[in-house]
Amino acid sequence: MIMNIQKWTKIFGTGLIVGGFAGWFAAFTLLFERIEFLKGNLAMPSCSVNVFINCGRVFNSAYASLFGFPNVIIGLTLFPMAIVAGILFLSNTQVKSWVWKLGRIPLYGAIIFCFVLLYMTAFLIGAVCLWCMLAWTATFLIAYSYIALTNYQDADEAGKARLLRNWNAGYPLVWFGLFSVFFIGMLYASWWINDNGYWSDFPHFDPFYWLKK
Fold first, then answer.
1. What percent helix, strand, coil does the chain show, rounded to 5?
2. Structural domain of residue 76, as residue ranges?
C-alpha cells in the first residue's frame, strides 16, 4: 500500500486509539475480576484455562503489585492518554513539539515495564495471563504508532520521504514479526520448562525478590 501523509496520520492515529481502548479494557477486566475474586464472588477468572494459562496465579502473586498497588491501575491511568493522543493526531490539533517529545518518556518506561512483567510471569510465576498479554500487545502498538507519528513530525522533507519509503517497504511488518517471535519464544520456553518438570531446576533470576519478604 502506497502511503501518504493523510494515510500515515490516520493509520497510526487509529493505532493509538485502538491500542488505548484494548489496553484499558484488559486492565479494567483484570482489576474487576481481581476484586470479585477477593470478595468471593468469582471462583475462577475468565482467562484461567489451565495451570499454565492462569490469570488467577498471576494476579494473586506478589509480582502483580510491584509498587504496593495492583499493576493494572497503571494501565487504567495511562491507556486513556493514548486515546486522547490519537484523537489529537487525527484532528490535526496543534500541539507544541516538546509536548509530543515529553510523551515518549512514559512510553519507553511502559515498554521496559512490559518486558519485566513478561519475564516475571513466564519465568518467576510460571503462568501467563491472556488479559495481560492483550495489555502488553496494546502497549507495543501504542508505542510504535506514537513514535512513528512524532518522528514524522520532527523530520525534514527528506526524512519524511524516508519514513514513508520504509512503510511502503514493509518495515512495520518486520518489527511486528520480530516482536511476535520474541514474545512467543519466551512463552514457549516457559511452557516447556513447566511441562517437562524442570521448573525447580531452572536458575531463576529474580530482581524483585524483596516482594516475597
1. 75, 0, 25
2. 5-200
**What does the alpha-carbon distance between residue 10 and residue 106 come to, in Å, rounded to a whole number?**
23
The answer to whether position 119 is within a domain reads yes
Q: State the SS3 of 123-176.
A: HHHCCECHHHHHHHHHHHHHHHHHHHHHHHHHCCHHHHHHHHHHHHCCHHHHHH
Q: Are 10 and 148 in contact (CB under 8 A)?
A: no
CATH number at residue 80: 1.20.1440.130
- 181, 9, 24, 75: CA torsion to nearest 10: 70
Number of domains in the chain: 1
Residue 10 located in a structural domain: yes
Q: How would you class 14 by CB atoms within 10 Å of its CB: exposed for 0-12, middle for 13-18, buried for 19 or more?
A: middle
Q: For 30-59, write each residue's pLDDT tens digit.
A: 888 888 877 877 667 777 777 778 887 888
| Rounded Cα–Cα distance for residues 20 and 1 (Å) | 25
Sign of CA dihedral 189, 193, 199, 202: negative
Q: Is the pTM of this model over 0.90?
A: no
